[in-house]
Amino acid sequence: GGGGRGGHEKRTAADAERKTLAYENAVLRQVIERMGGKTPRKYVDEANERDREEERERRRREAEAATKAREELDAADRELGALRKELAEAKGKLATTTAAATAAAAKSKSGQKEGGKSKQGRRGGGGNVVVDDRISHSSFEIGDVGLFMPTGLTMMKGGKRTYLAFHTNCPHRYLSTDNIEGTPDYVLGRIIYQEELYAGPMGTDSNPYGLHVGTKFWVLTVEMLNVPI
Q1: Listed residue (179, 132, 137) closest to 158, CA to CA
Q2: How many Å is the maximal CA-CA distance in the chain?
Q3: Are 176 and 221 in contact (CB under 8 A)?
Q4: What secondary structure letter does DSSP report for 177?
Q5: What end-to-end distance do the CA atoms of the chain give, in Å?
Q6: Over the stretch 169-226, which tens digit does the pLDDT of each residue have?
Q7: What is the C-alpha to C-alpha distance for residues 219 and 51, in angstroms, rounded to an integer?
Q8: Residue 4: Cβ within 10 Å count
Q9: How many CA atoms lie within 13 Å of 201's alpha carbon, on the beta-carbon side?
Q10: How far, in Å, CA of 1 to CA of 6, rounded?
Q11: Distances from the Cα of 13 to the Cαs of 18, 83, 220, in angstroms?
Q12: Distance CA 155, CA 162 (A)
């Protein structure tokens, strides 16, 4: 009889403890909900979801960056290919033109001697005029021979092509429009006059070549030299 009573008391105590714990848990849940809190499991689930969302966003940004990089690289490759082609064409044209220009300069000098005419050029140590028949590229003075190539730009007035002197570290030497007739592949001439100017506002007559404001440039007038074909 004593053992039965002892077992019954233990079960009763255990039931009372379970009910107490259930009651306390219920009270705690109500307090948490009233305070706007969430259960620990929900906090963990939301944190995991945020991590997954951040990972998805990171991968999306990486994919976009990789796509943009590939597009920029492809565009750069195309531009480089076009520049290489233009350079090869320019080198070929320059080689042909230089040979023809040398012959033209020699012919021009011979014609000057036969006609008894003199050309203005550099003065030598004795004060005599020295005419140089070589194509100038590192400096441009009266009497020099210049080779002018089309730039692809068109003048705002008159619609004539723009021609720039072939040069080495001597930029912004442009051929006067008075010397441009038609659309020749190049112009060869002896410089007889050059005007020094400064670029004004973009889109105005004082800046016909689209230079940065304040850039120094020169407009060269030449005596045309015929190049044998």
Answers
A1: 179
A2: 154
A3: yes
A4: G
A5: 136
A6: 889 999 998 888 888 888 999 999 999 999 999 888 899 888 999 999 999 999 988 6
A7: 66
A8: 8
A9: 2
A10: 9
A11: 9, 93, 114
A12: 6
